[in-house]
Model the fold of this input.
Amino acid sequence: MSKVPSTARLALALLFLMALSLAAQEAETGFAMPISITVGASSTSRLATWHPEVDLQSNQNRWNAGFRALLTPSLKLSRNWFAYSAVQLHSNRFFYYEAFHSPQYHTGWRDRFPVHLLQGFVAYDRRGESRSLTVKAGQLATAFGSFAMRYTDTANPLIDQPASSGSYLLLRPDQLPCTVQDFQDQQVKHPNIASYPCAGGYRYHYGIFPVTMYGLPGAEVNLTLKDLDARLQLTNSSPANPKNLLQASQHAQWVLGGGYTPLPGLRIGASGFRGPWLEDSLDRRLSGGLRARHAPASGLGLDLQWARSRWSVNAEWQRFVFRYPVRLRSHPSLTYGYTEVKTILTPRLYVAVRPGYQNHNLLPGKRAVEFAVGFRPNRSQLLKVGYLWTTRSPAPLPNESVLGFQLVTSLPGPAKAWR
Done:
């Protein structure tokens, strides 16, 4: 079963070290910890596919509810040094993709209420009139693409996430396919399970995300010079198979990105990554000096952000190739794309829409359109109502569309200023 490990102890340790850093500085300036709490509900037939043996035409368990809490402590250590973290606690099946999770595999507290350290780093920042330099080290959001930094429910005008970071790709990092046909055969019996028949049956596995929304241990350098920006990130594992520092199968990865702002409110960017993505446990099945690390995954992305008056647009196109260290007629490759448009109708009301697609060379393609209305009853709250319409070819049963509701409450949290 694919799962990003819980990092509650890592988050507490980080906060402790940040507090010690603050005590050791001569030029303390302050501490703040904003808090965001989201409660949500959804209605979807995805819940009928919890287990492979469930009748896919069943319409039971259509309604689901959950919560998400996001704490973002930060310390301003001096003029140039600061520390930042983002700790997430949520109930299982809060996110749309988790509707496919089977209850029999989520019985413990860590599975029912997972905790993740989305970010947790110490940084050096130096700025001039038309240039800046920022160096980060710790748990970092991936530098690939642009959506990973919009992990708060207020920064996302809709409810779901784009497909590359919010829907499972049915590939296995811990199994080797025998032929290309294995990718297609798994769709016939269990369209929501990633398992290659030649590898020994249908062991339950949700698949992977091409781009994780969870942090990766590493270091990053960001540069800006007038209208240009660039970033280089080195991490311990792939954004498609994230690992913490205590896990096996860690391999150095790089992400390179940059952007150009030709006009105020318009930015055009690009990014790419490359590195091993498979589990080292596959080495015992390989011969001839081949190792799992010899088969990299790679991604290339283009992104655009534009805002003017009441309108804003975010768009991305991404292409991925996932290689296996076996001889295949074709390795899995896929493209994702979406365009997100938001317009503010009144100071309290907005509407947003995000059409998107997935094209795979070996797996079913998808089309999706999400629409949402956002209303602010006051400065601290945001109510979102949305509908996600999605199709897959060939189409599985039941329908995967989702009707969703969210209420996001933003609280200032504890804060202390020293200067």
The helical segments are 8-24, 109-112, 163-166, 181-189. The first helix runs from residue 8 to 24. Residues 1-8, 19-27, 50-59 have pLDDT under 50 and may be disordered. DSSP finds four helices and 19 strands in the chain.
